[in-house]
Amino acid sequence: MSAVKKIKVKNRLAAAVRAPGGKTIAEAVAGAEAKLEDIRDDCLASLDSILVSMAELIANPSGAAPEDVAAGLYELSNDIVGIAGVAGLGDMGQAAFSFCDLLDVFVEQGGWNVAAVEVHMNGLKLLRTMSDKIGEAGRAQILEGLFAVVKRIKAAGAPPSA
């Protein structure tokens, strides 16, 4: 029988954290915020581009099946969630997440509801273009409306294919 041999591994991360020097937490946060501000305009341009792509997909000039449209919208809406988080647009991220939730219902229950999709698209557009002008209360109202649409569609069962 062989003896148990214990190997102690040096934790380099812990050693680096304890080492003197480097940035303070406040400096690191300020630096990260400055970097995020540097890319904010690119993020906003990406959001605008995604919204255009979503509108084109909803118009469905190619006659794609609703499931394919829903899958494309889900992917684009999920992209908005990520970009909105980076750009500090939490309300827009919540609206995009609500849209993903709505699209999940369509996939799970079958069917399609054009009005519910348009409400979500209009909410996203409003939050993108008018967010500063409508204030926190206005943004909250938009989100409450979007959440209510999803709740109603879930409660109704399979949405109509209209």
Describe this entry's structure for a reader.
With 162 residues, the chain is mainly alpha-helical. It has one domain: Up-down Bundle (Four Helix Bundle (Hemerythrin (Met), subunit A)). It is 78% helix and 0% strand. The protein has five helices and no strands. The chain has helices at 12-18, 25-59, 66-87, 90-109, 114-156. The longest helix has 43 residues, at 114-156. The chain starts with 11 loop residues before the first helix and ends in a 6-residue tail after the last helix. The model has no long low-confidence stretch (mean pLDDT 89).
- Mean pLDDT comes to 89
Structural class, from helix and strand content?
Answer: mainly alpha
Overall 3D form: extended
- The span between the termini is 74 Å
CATH topology-level name: Four Helix Bundle (Hemerythrin (Met), subunit A)
Largest β sheet strand count, sense and barrel closure: none
Quickly give the CATH architecture: Up-down Bundle
Q: Report the β-strand fraction as a percent range.
A: under 5%
Contiguous helical run count: 5
Radius of gyration: 22 Å
CATH class: Mainly Alpha
Q: What's the number of domains? A: 1
Could you estimate the helical fraction of the residues in percent? over 70%
Uncertain runs: none
Give the helices and strands as they follow along the chain: HHHHH
- The beta-strand count equals 0
